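Following up on my earlier message about flavin-adenine dinucleotide. Here are the inputs again, as you asked, copied directly from the submission form:
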Amino acid sequence: MPMGKRSDRNEVVIAGAGASGCIAAICLARRGLHVTLVDKNKEPARKIRVTGNGRCNLTNLFQDETCWYSEESPAFMEPLLKFGAEELMGFFEDMGVRFHDRQGYVYPRTDQASVIADTLISQISSLPVTFLGETAVTDISRRSREGEKPFLVRAGDKKIPADYVILSCGGLAGPSFGCSGDGYALARSLGHGLISPSPALTPLPADRKRIKSASGVRCRAAVTALVDGQEIRREEGEMQFTESTVSGIPVFQISRILTRALSEGKRCTLKADFLPELEGEELDRETAFRMGMEDNLTLQEVFSGLVHPGVLRMVLSDLGLQSEVKKRKVSPEKIREILRALKECTFPVEKPGGFAKAQVTAGGVPLDEIDLNTFESNIVPGLYLTGEMLDVDGICGGYNLQWAMTGGYLAAGSITERTDL
Ligand SMILES: Cc1cc2nc3c(=O)[nH]c(=O)nc-3n(C[C@H](O)[C@H](O)[C@H](O)COP(=O)(O)OP(=O)(O)OC[C@H]3O[C@@H](n4cnc5c(N)ncnc54)[C@H](O)[C@@H]3O)c2cc1C
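Thanks, got it. Here's what our run produced:
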């Protein structure tokens, strides 16, 4: 990456060249500030390449307070109202990227996450940004002697004096992309607190033996999070089974609730309804129809037009039945019971999903420790904290990139306003 023109004034060090750090670097450098952008990865925007299954769900046209969680503060909407979907899309449109949306979920028009990553990289390369790749920021110290810049940042074997520091190191989700919680340690060393991080938007572990027949299946389902027997949230969509987990968007959406509740010692259950479109009379009609089918058919044949055979085998096995059993061998009441079991299939959740497969981190640096207009620390003037390392996590749908990029943009805006260029 080319070295830009250096200036003695207004040096900004950005720790973390992810979604948030890249936007901040671009905005600062465009205004003539010298930026050193540091990342543990070889190149900026590494994680962006895998977002949205390689398509990058950048943002969402629908945004309100139900789209993000924060453990302690509901104030996260304030910055999002200043730099939301329209502004974020505009930022990339000015660099030539075009978008399309699917029911409000915004993707680059080419459906390639690499378009977003490459656009950020090419912009950074053309601006006075010094990028230090494969380098970790390991320490940030404050200095108060006259004539010295207020921060000294240790990055690899370098010590970089800085007027402003942006911490945008992400959280703990996606450790293979460089995210291992360094930002929390750096923030704590400067006096910030930490709300215990936990994985969110993640698959949930399930009993391998029980789900074996369903492994690899993708099917429509409504999943409900139950905490101590109470229904907390229901999500409908494509549920997936792997060898050892239940997964898919509806599971991701409720994983945060169950993971946080588990950490509080609560009893957690995921309930799957594999026939969410059938309720009341329609369910009664379907039950009567299946009861009336040929007695010589196997249970597999009776239900094959209704549910995936892998799911059916799992549910039948829960009831002590096998799919090869002839219908005539089971009572009509049993047929009703099978349909009920397909609508109320419960999975005890005893362990949280790990960070390795999580898309985002819940918890982080408390929001009341930063000014949400600017993302500047209320504890250390000149220090900014942005993105996933803060105590905000979005639901699936482009909300996490939006949050990260909003922070990067507003932090850069605040720094440029304060500098005397
Ligand atoms: C598989 C996957 C798919 C996802 N898909 C989507 C999606 O489609 N839409 C969406 O909105 N969100 C998605 N997310 C979430 C989203 O990518 C993140 O929430 C977002 O990137 C967070 O931005 P950030 O800038 O805070 O941190 P990150 O983008 O995580 O960047 C942090 C950077 O800091 C660097 N770093 C860490 N410690 C140091 C250190 N000590 N020194 C230097 N550098 C350091 C890391 O290497 C990393 O590059 C996905 C996440 C994953 C894992």
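One observation from looking it over: Residues 204-349 form one domain. Hope that helps, and feel free to reply on this thread.
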